[in-house]
Structure formats: structure tokens, C-alpha cells
Specification:
Strand content: 5-15%
Structural class: mainly alpha
Strand order of the largest sheet: 1-2
Helix content: 40-55%
Largest sheet: 2 strands, antiparallel
Radius of gyration: 18 Å
Shape: elongated
Order of helices and strands: HHEHEHH
Distance between the termini: 48 Å
């Protein structure tokens, strides 16, 4: 009779990929929670492409993200953020309140629609196509 050995990790250390996935999921959950809080909409959905964010978040709810570290982490789908360090910067910023949603008035809205680059970065390289909602 042949014995099969199973190897289990004792006190498993998560792989880099697992940590990326967990941090990305936590960040999405946290951002969605904050969007729901500021809008009062329990089903509010965050959108991560430039076009969808401006249309489905800024235009719809009249809120925008303040404090996004554009120089370090371009505003884009979190699945496209290339490393754990950048995701950690974002998660820490949201938790510490240096990145947050803020309600905007009509003048701020129109200024942002005219030139959103101070909040979402330059247009270059942006794919403007419909995207599904991020899962919570």
C-alpha cells in the first residue's frame, strides 16, 4: 500500500500574489464603503477607469476623491496597479484619511469636467470603455 504525503504549511506565510489580492480586495471594499457613506447610497459602486469614474461617480454623486497620490500611483483599475507597495500606499492613505471622498459643488464639478487631470491624472494611455462594477 502506497502512502501519500501531504504537505501543509505550518503558520503559512502568504505569497506575494496572495498579499496583493488581499490588499486589493481590502482597498476596493474600503473605497466602496466610503463612497456609500458619503453618498448615502448603500449600493453605490466605485468605477476605476477615468471615463467611468467621471461619469458614474463624479457626475452621478457629485463627489470626488481628494489626496490620491498621482505621482506615485496613477489613477486606474486596481488590478493594473503593479505592486504591493503601491497598493499599501493607497490603503494606508484611505485608512489615515489623507485620501478621501469629498462632496463638490456645481462650480467644482464643472471645473473638474473641464479638466479632470488634477484628480485623475493626464488622459494619455487611458482606455475609455465601459467597465463592470468592482465587486465588494
Amino acid at each position: 500500500m502506497e502512502q501519500h504525503q501531504h504537505r501543509f504549511r505550518v503558520n503559512p506565510v502568504k505569497s506575494y500574489s496572495e498579499r496583493m489580492t488581499e490588499t486589493r480586495s481590502e482597498l476596493r471594499r474600503y473605497v466602496r464603503e466610503k463612497l456609500c457613506e458619503i453618498t448615502g447610497e448603500p449600493n453605490a459602486q466605485m468605477r476605476w477607469s477615468r471615463h467611468a469614474y467621471l461619469k458614474d461617480v463624479v457626475s452621478r454623486y457629485r463627489v470626488r476623491i481628494e489626496g490620491w497620490p498621482l505621482a506615485d500611483v496613477p489613477f486606474k483599475n486596481l488590478s493594473d496597479v503593479p505592486n504591493l507597495g503601491k497598493l499599501d500606499v493607497l490603503l494606508r492613505g484611505w485608512r489615515e484619511g489623507t485620501i478621501y471622498f469629498r462632496a463638490i459643488d456645481d462650480a467644482e464639478f464643472h471645473a473638474m469636467m473641464a479638466d479632470p487631470s488634477p484628480w485623475v491624472g493626464p488622459l494619455e494611455g487611458d482606455i475609455q470603455e465601459a467597465e463592470p462594477a468592482e465587486e465588494a
